[in-house]
Amino acid sequence: MTTLTRPAPSTGRRRPVPWARLAWVSWRQRRVALITVAILLGALSLYLLIMGLRIHSAYAGVTACHPASSTRCLILKSNFTVTYYQSFGSPMFDNIGKPNGVSGLLLVVPLLLGVFAGAPLLARELETGTFRFAWTQGCGRLRWALAQLALPAIALTAAAGAFTALYSWYMWPFNALFAAGLGKSAMQPTEFPVHGVAFAAWTLAAFAIGAFAGVTIRRTVPAIAVTIAAWAGLALATAVFLRPHYAPPLRASGGAPHQSPTLLTKAWVLSSWTTGPGGRPISATRLNSLVPFGVQNSNQPNAFADWLTRHHYTQWWSYQPESRYGHFQLIEGGWLLALSVVLIAATIWIIRRRTW
Amino acid sequence: MNVIECARVGKRYGRAWALRDCTLAIPDGRVVALVGPNGAGKTTLLHILTGLNTPTEGAVAVLDGELAGSPAALDGIAFVAQDAPLYKNLPAGDMLRVASNLNSRWDQERAEARLAELDIPLTKKVGSLSGGQQAQLALTVALARRPALLVLDEPLARLDPLARHDFMASVMAAVAGDAMSVIMSSHVLAELEPIADYLVMLSAGRVQVAGEVDDLLASHLLLTGPAGETSKLADRMCVVQCRQADAQAHLLVRTTKPEEPIPPGWDPRPVTLQELVLAYLRQPGAAALPGPTQVSTDHAAEVQA
User: What is the residue-wise DSSP string for A122-178?
Assistant: First the structure.
């Protein structure tokens, strides 16, 4: 075969493939998954929006009622609580569709969003062998990897952020109404991660863990399993070991074991203990054996506390006040963002360097 | 100008060398047949050329001096990997769009015309196409990039004879029209013979034979003669392979200089590419390389069963 002029010189004229075109590829490949996520989040958002509008208009009626201490207003407030927040008598159950039920469901939403977008992303390419197609195209591996990871990461984080903003708006009347009392503290481990920056950050972290697991394990199903385990472990470890120490906990004393001071109603109580007359801690079992039977079974609600105070026993609590909520959100969002960036960078490094 | 240049390239996996001491200089515009038994290092070499793999030692340059795997190299090389991996859940038309958006150079008209010619509907999912159609689609995607070098890894392995024939006809037509270089690994020698003009044979990770097909055919002869005189002939000529049947011996010899006199009693016949490849496959220790490499004659007297 004779050498003719080459069809196109490989040097000189070469321009990098535009990001928009690479993003289209990423979109086309993950269209079904992204649309599914959008529909699920959209349905949940629609529910929150409709319920939220009803709650807000009902709440406007409660706040407009004057004078607030009148029987009519108290009934209105009570009806509002029963209708929209929780039913009396069964505070833990029968709350599906009410805020308590929704927040429990929301705890796993970041995981579901992240894991099903992140884990198959590269695992499928490696499992089916299509990486040999994708990584030998003219755009090059680095640009391909950046486009493939950046688009879903940004889309997911933005969707999660928008969703949590909606959820906070939906919850706002309850937080305002129950400034002290019924409302759960936003610092509680079941509440904290479903609000604000933390929700979006946990979603991004699930995606980043999934992508990294996918590129290292190279099989979709094991990558999903490992991602779920790793994310759940991380979330649990954060709630138990990490979040309580974002700032040194505060201490409060007084009252009795079942009667915490009002300042604790909207705080995250980490631990409680009792000290004896000498200031030494005393275990709950020992305390129970010390307190006379008559006092423990007394009909008087304050009998136990009164007995303790009389005998110079003190009840202690360590807690994180709700005033630290914003600060804690930023800390948690910050380190989760850093972790996600590191994992995504490591994933891209593996794609660039890995040889097959 | 060389489209592929390897200088003492080696690739090690753990302790085992998949490729060792691989030195090649393949001029532009060739159709290179890459042949060798399983595990000889063919895929490793092709993956190194396309940047999917990096050599443990040595240097590789493609397309006139570009570093293998560099953006400039990837831009000019189209690779159809083994089993033609494509996105099976996409319709063929969307597969084309995906590929077009991953490349700076793309000939959509050509791709669509080729698929129309092959009766592959754009709306049909890649996964539901036949093996032959998937291979053709992968080739279409590769050709639409208008590459300077087309790399094909075992493109015929899973195809039936008719699909093989059609695929090779497509490659031949593209080569004739585009003046691109092609390197193609295959087990199917018969399909390579009409198209290959350069041969690279790998054996246990080393280059066994490398050269222009015309030169190789001109420098090898099949000799038939008395079995008793085999060793005498081996002293004078470079015997690659010897097969004995009763009193007769069939030798494949490599002539070191042109017009080498044939010893009396031996009947010469030109060798076909397929015979040449088979002979070297049967003799993994024998080598035919350009340059000063001395061909070993130790194996010459070995008798093949």
Answer: HHHHHHHTTHHHHTTSTT-HHHHHHHHHHHHHHHHHHHHHHHHHHHHHHHHHHHHHT
Residues of B in contact with A125 (CB under 8 A): none
Our count of domains for chain B comes to: 2
* A129: in domain: yes
B125 contact A CB<8A? no
Q: What is the pLDDT of residue A184?
A: 63
Assess whether B158 and B224 both reside in one domain.
Answer: no
Q: Which residues of A touch B (CB under 8 A)?
A: 1-8, 10-11, 14-17, 21-22, 24-25, 28-29, 128-141, 144, 355-356
- What are the residues whose beta carbons fall under 8 Å from the beta carbon of B42, sequence distance 6 or more? B34, B35, B36, B153, B154, B185, B202
Q: State the pLDDT at residue A255.
A: 58
Q: Do B99 and B163 belong to one domain?
A: yes
Alpha carbons B134 and B185: distance in angstroms, whole number: 18
Task: Give contacts of A133 with chain B, Cβ < 8 Å.
Answer: 79, 81, 85-87, 138
What is this structure's pTM?
0.86
ipTM over 0.95: no
Which residue range(s) make up the domain with B234?
A: 219-282
Instruction: Find the closest chain A residue to B212 by CA distance.
Output: A1
On whether the CB atoms of residues B265 and B289 are closer than 8 A, the answer is: no
Q: Does B206 lie in the same domain as B245?
A: no
Of A75-84, A152-161, A188-197, where does mean pLDDT reach its minimum? A75-84
Is residue B140 less than 8 Å (CB to CB) from chain A? no
Are A314 and A172 within one domain?
no
- Strand-pair partners of B211: B199
* Whether residue A137 is found in the same domain as residue A124: yes
Using the 3D structure, point to which of B212, B237, B263 is the last residue of a domain. B212
- Say if A9 falls within a structural domain: no
- State the total domains in chain A: 2
B54–A355 CB contact, under 8 Å: yes
CB contact under 8 A, B101 and A21: yes
Quick one: A219 and A267 in the same domain?
no
- Residue A162 to residue A158: CA distance in whole angstroms: 6
Average pLDDT of the residues in B101-111: 94
Residues A228 and A290 in one domain: no
Spell A145-177 as b/e; 16+ CB within 10 A means b. Answer: bbbbbbbbbebbbebbbebbebbeebbebbbeb
Q: Which of B3, B30, B96, B101 should one mutate to test binding to chain A, selecting the residue with the greatest count of A CBs within 10 A?
A: B101
Q: What is the pLDDT of residues A282-315, one digit of tens each?
A: 887 887 788 787 777 777 777 777 787 788 888 8
CB pair distance less than 8 Å for B29 and A1: yes
| Pair A68, A126 in one domain | yes
| Mean pLDDT value across residues B183-192 | 85
Q: At B73, which CATH number? A: 3.40.50.300
Residues A113 and A157 sit within 8 Å (Cβ to Cβ)? no
Question: Token match 């592959």: residue?
Answer: B120
Structural domain harbouring A347: 19-87+95-245+324-353
| Closest chain B CA to residue A129 | B85
**Domain check: are B145 and B252 in the same one?**
no
How distant, in Å, are the alpha carbons of A39, A139, A310, B157 from that of B153?
Answer: 42, 21, 88, 9
Q: Is residue A4 in some structural domain?
A: no
> A307 and A344 share a domain?
no
Whether A11 sits inside 8 A of B72 (CB atoms) is yes
**Residue B142 confidence class, pLDDT cut points 50, 70, 90:** very high
Name the strand (E) or helix (H) holding A102: helix A99-106
A210 within some domain: yes
Whether residues B238 and B165 share a domain: the answer is no
